[in-house]
Amino acid sequence: MKIALAQQNYIIGDFEGNFEKISDAIDQAIQQNTDLILFSELAICGYPPRDFLYFNHFIEQCELIINRICAIAQDRIAVVIGAPSKNPIPDGKDLYNSAYFIENGKVKHITHKTLLPTYDVFDEYRYFESNRTFELVEYKGKKIAITICEDIWDTGETNPLYTVNPVEELAKLQPDFLLNLSASPFNYKQAIKRIEIVSRNASAFNIPIFYCNNTGAQTELIFDGGSLVIDNQGRLIDELPYFRTAQKYYELDVNNTIQIINDIQNSNTKDEMALIHDAIICGIKDYFGKLGLKKAILGLSGGIDSALTLYFAVKALGKQNVLSVLMPSQYSTNHSVDDSLKLVENLDTSYKIIPIKEAFDVLDKILQPHFDGKPFDVTEENMQARIRAIYLMALSNKHGYVLLNTTNKSEAAVGYGTLYGDMCGGLAVLADIYKTQVYDLCRWINRNDEIIPKNIIEKAPSAELRPNQKDSDSLPDYEILDRVLFEYIENIKGPDEIRQILGFEEALIDRILKLVNRAEFKRHQTPPILRISPRAFGSGRRVPIVNKYCQ
Amino acid sequence: MKIALAQQNYIIGDFEGNFEKISDAIDQAIQQNTDLILFSELAICGYPPRDFLYFNHFIEQCELIINRICAIAQDRIAVVIGAPSKNPIPDGKDLYNSAYFIENGKVKHITHKTLLPTYDVFDEYRYFESNRTFELVEYKGKKIAITICEDIWDTGETNPLYTVNPVEELAKLQPDFLLNLSASPFNYKQAIKRIEIVSRNASAFNIPIFYCNNTGAQTELIFDGGSLVIDNQGRLIDELPYFRTAQKYYELDVNNTIQIINDIQNSNTKDEMALIHDAIICGIKDYFGKLGLKKAILGLSGGIDSALTLYFAVKALGKQNVLSVLMPSQYSTNHSVDDSLKLVENLDTSYKIIPIKEAFDVLDKILQPHFDGKPFDVTEENMQARIRAIYLMALSNKHGYVLLNTTNKSEAAVGYGTLYGDMCGGLAVLADIYKTQVYDLCRWINRNDEIIPKNIIEKAPSAELRPNQKDSDSLPDYEILDRVLFEYIENIKGPDEIRQILGFEEALIDRILKLVNRAEFKRHQTPPILRISPRAFGSGRRVPIVNKYCQ
Description:
Oligomer: homodimer
Radius of gyration of chain A: 26 Å
Largest sheet of chain A: 7 strands, mixed
């Protein structure tokens, strides 16, 4: 039996566009005499469709596309593809998250997802009812087990999230092989974990697995692809490339052993820096591409965050599509401009210099009578950041740029940034990357050539909003801060546990947790953040703004 | 048997503060020789605790408070109170949403919530496992059924959200009465619906119900209280007041009939305007109060939205704590300032006038060379809005005000507003209130006296960012717009259905839906929105920014 995996990149709600991609893949597979082609989870509408699923009209569009797929597949190929389906039983949620098995131009079987991830960025029980019955689908003499994403995601821990294991149930029915339709977003740990989990399922139940993931970014979520073919002993037969579409073919013989038919070379690295690097570029590219946008603008401060953001923007959008704006103030050091110019030169991209002193002086003059003689404080610092935002947004509005936000995860965590100032933007490029990781990434990017000027990496971080300001005036060293943040945010450890794990002083930990919990109101208003970690700020971390926990 | 209902207002994660309120209520009930006191859902930690529930430390704090309640209750009173509890079984989620039954100073029984709302603003399956077994608790010769919020929320529709009905299961065990611990947020339809649902359950199963809700606002969610006592024939015996704390006592005799002991008069209106009015005041008051803030600032444009926001701010925080800032531009009409001054006078509150022309002219002069000769457009309009934001945020930072956002729901829906301009603020007061409802509210407020100047209500809405601008230049009339928005947002109708329901032209509807779906990126960055409708923007409506649905 010849099986194809179609790893594709969809747009949510773009029914015509998605259908075109799907039908092209089917046509190609038919030309290759393929018996069955496998697509990813909710391929027809794109994942995650979120509350669009509540619209009956949206579900009907999905059904229409299923009919059109039936019409092109005819008796030439079987198609297994993800789409929502209506729950015929009145009790329970109105929808299932389903895999349609199309044979002879008809829907032969609809398999529903059993395990509905409802944690982190996932909200599936918001929309879907769980499957409770297990059946195989027979096709050309083979018995096929069909699962959807989470159904196979048994991490092997002693504390599973669910009370049922769908693969175990299906294995009892003795399938020849198992299909999995996924929409599994990237994080820098995911590639290794995915192979490990699929592999363990295959060997534990002695069953070959064809695992089809989608690829491309959906606002903040980045899907890396990396679809898998694993044999019944858990051996990796093939892995599709990361962060791009691909279609590959496999022959499953009578003994259920698997041959790769068309070997596309891929250079799938498991290196975390390389993965984060490629993920961010994919995230920027698809945010712009899917919204029909081309050009980005950003403020270049001379610091490492805006430097790295510019590098990513140029990589993702092309140097001709990115404009940097240098906006020195009276507190800016000379090296801020010099270092920025060096970077712009290295990347061969265009820039403008628009100082803010004149604008600041006028605003300050206008507002001083209303400051009641109070001294220079964070007000004046924020005013500078907000004047820069006015400049950037004016150029953005006038010329059709999208402003990129350059905040890193450490700053976002503790609220070290100005709302409506440097926290503006259409997309936050680095806000899931800790400051210490920003340094690591820059060094990784510079591993062969000095792309990001050495001085930008080596100088002490500063917002340059008052004379001789340094980040370390207000914050613990990033080496310390990031370790505490990682325990609190990624590992969800409370204050006592963090003290035990890291051995830092109670007062230091309490101060940091208080900063994090008090900055929730700022994070509520930040742009969507490209997610590269297992726990990013945004829809994957939900905390009430008004609270007194750890503060 | 003497039963007390304690309708209280908690702060999320404020374990000491919440315990103090709870222990005061228990002390008072003991003094009244009460047999049993009933609190609301997750009272100990506050509702909704969201991802704080993932912290083991947070759950342990809850357990410590339970122990302290046991210690004060001793053998003097039984306490039924909501808190999370750990799931002892490794399979499934780690927590239950539970009701602790405390008798003789010990936890006698823990009842778990069966139906976990996971829709709208609710994410309970994100954290909790569902109860699957049904038992009564015996106390002083009575058999008591215990339920938590959603467990009783059978709307009687033919398409229920769940496959089990906990009240039906419990009724089979023949309880003498039923307790319900709720944390059920307000919307302007909720008060009537709540009585109807609890009443239907009582009469259908022939069982008296004591229903205890919490009150007060938690960021965007407003809890109205309105706790209920309903007899076994579904008759309303008592309803606790809305939007404030209360503690009341009831006697349940041997025949399970109920007497009110201390009758507090309440003036619970079911009028939608009055309810929205009181809810918004509660929302502002608790946002400020629970964050330890006192003073609000807002920009007064002369339009109806900022006028209504100022009215609410003064009502909630006191006139001495609210500062209005009038920031006329060269495009402002004279009546903008005059009308605003009249309003400020009516409300006897303070104001400043800081024109923006000088600041605009300087910024425009600085930026013109970078506009490449392109004509005046939305850029210059946005610049004016953003200069006002700089003024307001500078005063906010310098003097410790919180900026109130004045956007209404119609504007938020179609993206009619300037990001980092008039869309700034710590709290969006009106963004769940359509423009047509804003008018209705102002007329309702003026029903006896002209508090909001008539001219503000009667003039045509305008942003006044270019000469002779009117909202109607860019948007359909609000009467039409709001009806389409209501079908799309509240009723979740697709384009064809809206056309059938309203009979408007296809092009008009398509234009509006496109505006809504394209404005998602703006709504992503708006402040938290006080929720007064069954479907507010914010955590109750989750839509991907990058999408091509209906656009």
